[in-house]
Structure formats: structure tokens, C-alpha cells
TrEMBL record:
<dbReference type="Pfam" id="PF20362">
    <property type="entry name" value="DUF6657"/>
</dbReference>
<feature type="coiled-coil region">
    <location>
        <begin position="109"/>
        <end position="148"/>
    </location>
</feature>
<keyword id="KW-0175">Coiled coil</keyword>
<protein>
    <submittedName>
        <fullName>Uncharacterized protein</fullName>
    </submittedName>
</protein>
<dbReference type="InterPro" id="IPR046598">
    <property type="entry name" value="DUF6657"/>
</dbReference>
Length: 199
């Protein structure tokens, strides 16, 4: 199983290699770096079509294409995560589109990308559902507590349970469990994509 490395680990490895690298190794490292940059530019520019990644490869000399592709694939793979908001969701979608384009729509890659997209969608739905259930449960508790302690009947819709410290504490615990469950499935798919991509 491939190890997913942090940016800092990659930088430190690169610095160590450059200290004792040959000209050819430095050229390969520069190509990988350029491929990662092209991948990051693709992710950052929503108007850029996934096919543009292949376009970058065809413009490069044939001997450099494989290394540039590995750099682009590494960037796409490092941008597969459990999205917590709309911008994260869009970034994951872009990374999946980039992976598909770089794999030329290969069936196995397409199946894994579809599985990851479905996983991200289920995670988002499950996360929202559980968060709303927790809010509703805490809202009812707060309403009952106010009624018992102060004899006040409060409209439940006017109670914001997210302001209660218990919500943050309980939501943190639940979210960690949810991230662990979905994170395992994500890592399994991502590892398969790493192996398939040869990164």
C-alpha cells in the first residue's frame, strides 16, 4: 500500500535528493514538480477543462510525458479528501475529473472515481443528517431545561443549540467517529488509485 506523504515530507525528501542527485535525477525531480504545479493550476481554475491536462502532456517532449503525468496524478490523488463544505466538494470533484482525464477514462479508474464521488456524497448527506439530529435533540433538551428551571415556555425555533458548549463537544466527538468511518473507505479507494496510477 502506498504511503501518502505530507507536503513537508515531500519537500524534505526533495531537498535530500537534490543534495546528492545527478543531473538526470534533478531533471526528473523538476519534471515531477512541474507536473504537480500543472495539476494544482488545473484544480485552482474551474474554467479549465480536464482535457487540458492531456494537452499539457502532448505539448511536452515524449520522453518527459510519463514523469509530468506522475506529478499531475500525485496532485490529484493528494486532493482526495472528505469535503466539509462546498469549496471542498468542488475541489474533490475537480481532482476526480483530473484523474479520469489522466487515466484516459480507463474503466478501473472510472469505477474507483465513481466510488469516491459516491462516498463523498454519502459523507456529506450523513454529516448533515447527524448534525441536524444532534441540534434537534439538544434544542429539545434546552427547551425542557428552561421550562423546568425557570418555568418559561420557549419557542423551540428560537433556540440555537449550536451556541451551547455541549453541542460543540458532542459534535466534535461524533464528527471524529464519522471521519474515521468514512476515512477508512476513502483511504482504501485512494490506495487503489495510487497503485493504479503508479505514483
Amino acid at each position: 500500500m502506498s504511503e501518502i506523504k505530507s507536503t513537508m515530507e515531500l519537500v524534505l525528501e526533495r531537498a535530500a535528493r537534490l543534495g546528492r542527485a545527478t543531473d538526470e535525477e534533478m531533471h526528473v525531480d523538476a519534471l515531477l514538480h512541474r507536473g504537480r504545479q500543472l495539476g494544482a493550476e488545473f484544480l485552482d481554475h474551474a474554467e479549465e477543462k480536464p482535457e487540458s491536462l492531456a494537452g499539457h502532456l502532448t505539448k511536452a517532449p515524449e520522453a518527459e510525458r510519463g514523469t509530468l503525468r506522475r506529478g499531475m496524478l500525485a496532485t490529484m490523488l493528494h486532493n482526495l479528501f472528505l469535503p466539509r463544505d462546498e469549496s471542498g466538494k468542488k475541489r474533490v470533484e475537480r481532482a476526480l475529473a483530473g484523474l479520469l482525464a489522466l487515466h484516459g477514462g480507463a474503466r478501473q479508474a472510472a469505477a474507483l472515481c465513481a466510488q469516491l464521488a459516491q462516498l463523498a456524497s454519502r459523507y456529506e448527506e450523513h454529516r448533515k443528517q447527524i448534525q441536524e439530529q444532534l441540534k434537534e435533540q439538544l434544542r429539545m433538551q434546552l427547551q425542557q431545561s428552561l421550562a423546568q428551571e425557570r418555568g418559561i415556555k420557549v419557542d423551540a425555533s428560537k433556540i440555537d443549540p449550536a451556541l451551547d458548549p455541549r453541542f460543540a463537544q458532542e459534535w466534535g466527538r461524533i464528527e471524529a467517529e464519522l471521519n474515521s468511518q468514512y476515512g477508512q473507505a476513502l483511504e482504501q479507494c485512494r490506495s487503489q488509485l495510487f497503485a493504479l496510477s503508479g505514483v
